[in-house]
Queue: 2 jobs
Job 1
Amino acid sequence: MPLTKKRIGIVCPYGWDTPGGVKSHIGDLAEYLIAQGHTVSVLAPSASDENLPSYVTSAGRPISIAYNGAVARLLFGPVAFSRVKSWIADGDFDVLHLHEPAIPSISLLACWAAEGPMVGTFHAASARKKIAFAITPFVEPVVEKLNARIAVSEAARETLQIHLDTDAMVVPNGIYAGRYADATIDPRWSGNTIGFIGRFEEYRKGLSVLIEALPQILSRIPDIRILIAGPGDPESFLEKLEPHLRNRFTFLGTISESDKANFMASVGIYVAPNTGGESFGIILAEALAAGAAVLASDIPAFDSLLGGGEYGTLFESENAHDLADKAIALLEDPVHRSAIAKKGHDYAQSFDWDVVAERIYDVYEMAMVGGKGVTLASDNRAWNRLLGRSNE
Amino acid sequence: MNNFLLSFFFLSIFAWYLSFLATRLNRLHHRVETSWANLDGLLQRRAAVAIEIARSEISDPAASLLLTFAAHQAREATVRDRSQAETGLTGALGILIENSADTQNPLEQELLLELKDLTAKIKVAIAMHVESVTRTQMVRKKLFIRVFRLAGSAPEPVTYEFEGDVF
């Protein structure tokens, strides 16, 4: 890190009060940069101004929109636009970092409104996102203003190449690898166990695929246990199951960060049967960092995170048979399991914030070269200057 | 009268669109210049470090000669020959670094560290420059931009073909 401190503005398109990969990535990045001495301001939609960290500015209440297989909480419109503009004008930033600027959100609005050094990060990775990119002709001239583009995975980069015909550098999302390095094995969770973390009631998290696979796994490994951590109502979930399967499940509810690391380090295999809608799969990077043997569906994000199966095992998405086969193979071969987990653990160090944030900052530095900071595009327009309508 | 108003309306929209396109292209041309200046500066710094390394004890006389030659060639090359010259320097540096991985001298370690840092930055700078050049070339091909000569007298940006694999 250089000695000069910068003013950095980050725009989060998704609602700050709902948990999500992009949101926590931005939060961690902002905190890392602040710890380095930079001034960081995050603009994000939020339902209320309460409980917001001091570095977050609310852009207004987000609107729920079905998007990417889940309900996304986005925000746009004239009121949001004027808030974005005043945030840019007040912030006096050296560089703007916009997340997901190609979807209708405040990121796109900020990209439209601002002039100067801008970096965009693209998270989405999916071949089926045609609709999201149907607005390409409108988005193209806007996204063109970005000095540098970052994709969080090879899959996201490919999506960008196909839909927006532009290349990007790959910088992954970050984790605090140190938190997972000294995770301890908890006997309550170790043994022939399959661990799962997430909002299990959501279909796209794929717990139903695991349940479908369970009878087959049970026939080979009778003492198998499924441990589930995450918010949700276990009672209504268990009711739907056959009685002999019910006692195989243990619900832990929401667990703390340190428990999460221990949980991942302890379980026999960590499974991520997600059916889609995952942009990066940070949870897998965390599981790898904790030293877990990972079994994940082969959706684009997971496939690229696990290096096509090099650092964890992949099964065909939504194929319960394949899941069961791979799970049995892993559980019956502890030598192979620990070998692949070791490889994954070493690989996960490259996701550490110390590495990732430095790489992102390098991109900021490159973008800032020759720039005189971020201004409003409207200030530069000839007629506004003539009419004296500039904010300066 | 109505027809007049309507055509005036469409004409002003068209004029706005042309000014929008011109701004867009101008921004791109500007970016090509800054990204090139940035890349150029980094490459110059790398050549300086390479000469520094050539004078240090890391390199034997043969490597020194090779390195100094490559560095000077890279410094003096024109924009069009630049990428080839720089690739030559990258190759020379690559051979040297492989052979001197276990140097103990702190001064030399510092040089190698600086080189590593520069290499990472150059990679980013190349990606940014290539992107801005291809974008500009793409936009310049648009019909309205060609017909109305919105590019003006700005020179067509030159593609910088850098073999990224050599890093």
Job 2
Amino acid sequence: MKATEHDTDERFLIQAAQRDATCFAALYEANFDRVYGFVARRVPSREEAEDLTAEVFHQALASLGGFEWQGTPFAAWLIGIASHLIARRWQRATGHIEVPADELETIGVSDHAERQAVLAQLVDRLPDDQRLVIRRRFVDQRSIREIAQELGRSEGAIKQLQFRAIETLRNQIRSGHA
Amino acid sequence: MPSYEIEQLDAALNALLAGQTLQALRNDPELLPMIEIASQLQLTPRLEFRAGLRDQLLAQASMPAADRVFDAKLAPSIHAQLKSRSVRDSVLPPLFSTGVSMLPVRGSHLAVSFALHVAALAIVLSSGWWMVENRTVVRKQIATRFSGTIDYLLPSAPGELHGGGGGGTQDKMPPPRGSAPRFSDQQLTPPAVIVKNEASKLSAEPAVIGPPEVKLPQLGQIGDPTAAILTPPSNGTGSGSGIGTGEGTGVGAGNGPGVAEGRGGGIGGGIYHVGGGVSAPRTIYDPDPEYSEDARKAKYQGSVTLSLVVDSEGHPRNVHVVRSLGMGLDEKAIEAVSKWRFEPGLKNGRPVAVQIGVEVVFRLY
């Protein structure tokens, strides 16, 4: 039932975006974490992941008019675009046409991508100070000392916040409260 | 939570962030799930990238469908755009952007808001500057408000200067309003509203003691000119055979053969001066006078001396200039002092009208 409601909502969103392209923002927000998570696992650097993710959404928006709803999630279509882009980049870099089989997941949405999207949502729900520490530590790659200086707290306090945040994420993933 | 676990996790995370693989960190099964999560956290997107891409997409979406074709080779790198964006954002965050966040954000709205704020600030600053430039602080200085210290103006009374008189035949009713009899040097017959002995063999015209050349207004019926109301005929509740509520052969509430408050003949009551048992009025509301435009431009300073009567209600009456300053400042002083309110002067605990002098000092600072 939930899946059907989700499909219906997504279908309406797609139709709305086809009529008015500015409505594409809702589809972008709903699928960003999945696409980024899928791409980021397959390219070596954050910059490359961001460029490819941007390209996926730009191409999706450009060709949205030709999209036909066939019952598969919109995310699958986006992942398909991402797979092709990664394959092309791989081909340019190595000169080979073939790409690893798992790079071409076009039918379903990647489990990893789904987990990544769930994790992003859980991070958003963390208390402010824990969320900030996680973002500074893992996204901005800052050291504990740098974060402590920025927040005006001791290094021990930052390590404790880091521990609590990851522990909370682990517990929530285990209990399935995604 | 044990601190060694915190330190252990941090050490493992340092190794992970330094580039070690998860395989190398699989020593501790307790921490492994947390390290795996940390590994996934490394793949979390930057917030500014997410927002920047959204803005790019909205800009692309606002173009006509035909122009919406995306060419990765021609499109500017998102990193280049985010870099320029971060520089702009540090100065004026959404002024250069057009996008949708929680609420629609448009640069034009921000520009209008910015302009209005600048205009408001300009008005505040310019008005402050004007105030400083045209600072005409009017300092009224009441050197002395009361005649007691302005000798040349209104000399204080060494004692009661007023005459007066009173009378009555201990009737139950106060005397009616009416005219006092004429003044005379000698009083043969005290005045009376009700004549007790109408068949007097030696009759004389009733009179009160006072200067004969002063003609009192004659209203017809004899009575107390200071009485407020018309009452049935009565000589009043006082004593001594006159008319009124005082004592003696006169008329009024005083004591003696004269008229009105006071004693010893003549006319009493009216306006008092400070001293001799009359207390000075006190100001309870005294707004500052304004500076006249001419005097302000000419930077003219000085003081105006006014004379006025503070009535028994505390209102200034008959305000007039005793020593003028000119350039419109006299009028400004009168205008201000006319708005003043006083606690009236007292005589025998009762409020009375008192004449005072006020010096208003105009000074530019």
